[in-house]
Amino acid sequence: MTRGTEKAEEFEELRPLLFSIAYRILGSVTEAEDAVQETWLRYEASTTPPTSAKAFLSAVVSRISINVLRSARVRREEYVGPWFPEPLLTDPYQDPERSAELADSVSMAALFLLERLTPLERAVFVLREVFGFGFPEIASAVERSEAACRQLVVRARRHMNAGRPRFEADRREREELALRFFDALSEGNVDGLREMLAADVQMVADSGGKAPQWAGGFFGADDVSRVLAALLPPFVRIGGAVEPHQVNGQPGAIFRDRYGKVINTWTLDILDGQIQTIRTVSNPDKLGHLGPVGDAWAVLRETQQVRRDPDRETGQPAQRGQGNRT
């Protein structure tokens, strides 16, 4: 076996870990994939075999991600409306010994909190708290002293703990509540929806100015339940599909138009048997990795027409997507 073949096999074995590191630092599937590809190019071009391929590649992808995040910060400051991470359906990296850390750290709420950290704090926190790297490896990865890295972790941990998200401990209960929620949603059951929503529930969207935007969002169980009950039955009637699916390790759904194209994704924060936050991502730039993206504006126009004229004929019979309920 040639060294080139060995490198390729080593890299492919570590690819899930490298992507997971990059995604948590960047909050972007496409940018994480680009960082992993750049890591491979640098590894392929290197001439000195590293003592540990895992340590070397993790360091390279971390440095690339830090640099990308620094430039991305400028773009995010000019972003139209709220900025959310790109939805991730499946985390490719699994480690039974760190399953809790991995699951918590990929949630929308946790990734949103990570945005408060500097790029260096974010990288150090991810490497230490999520993936359990030792300080010597982290220091090498970010090119800082071990003492400096320990201080960075302390600061990052303080910021994260101040707003650390809490979720329903029982995963099965979360999933069952989510399925009841989406059933009530498609039926337009206002009372059923209201019972599942926390009194101070908030519904917020990331459209990037490229899809329908809900102003500053909706707040409170009464307003949110009424809005949902008004919009979703017409959406289903025009052929829209609601597919319950894990999104960023949380109960959620993918919304598709009658042609199966992605319109948006939803994630639900559930605590104490109630939905606390509904986050939806509709910016088409953040949905392309999930498949062909539909025209959300056209779907909204048709939905509104059906609301105004309930007897209006639709293009195709309504459908209910089943999706992945695991």
In brief, what are we looking at here?
The protein has 326 residues and is α+β, with helices and mostly antiparallel strands. Helices cover 53% and strands 13% of the residues.
Mean pLDDT: 89
Helical content stands at 40-55%
Strand percentage = 5-15%
Figure out the total of helices. Answer: 12
Rg calculated over all Cα atoms: 21 Å
Number of domains: 2
Which stretches are low in confidence, meaning pLDDT under 50 for 5 or more residues running? Answer: 316-326
End-to-end distance: 41 Å
As laid out across the biggest beta sheet, the strand order is: 2-1-6-5-4-3
Give the helices and strands as they follow along the chain.
HHHHHHHHHHEEHEEEEH
- Please report the total strand number as a whole number: 6
Briefly note the structural class of the backbone: alpha+beta
Overall geometric form: elongated
**Main beta-sheet strand count, sense and barrel state:** 6 strands, mixed
Organism: Streptomyces glomeratus
InterPro entries: ECF_Sigma-70_Domain, NTF2-like_dom_sf, RNA_pol_sigma-70_dom, RNA_pol_sigma-70_ECF, RNA_pol_sigma70_r2, RNA_pol_sigma70_r4_t2, RNA_pol_sigma_r2, RNA_pol_sigma_r3/r4-like
Keywords: Sigma factor, Transcription, Transcription regulation
Domain RNA polymerase sigma factor 70 region 4 type: 111-160
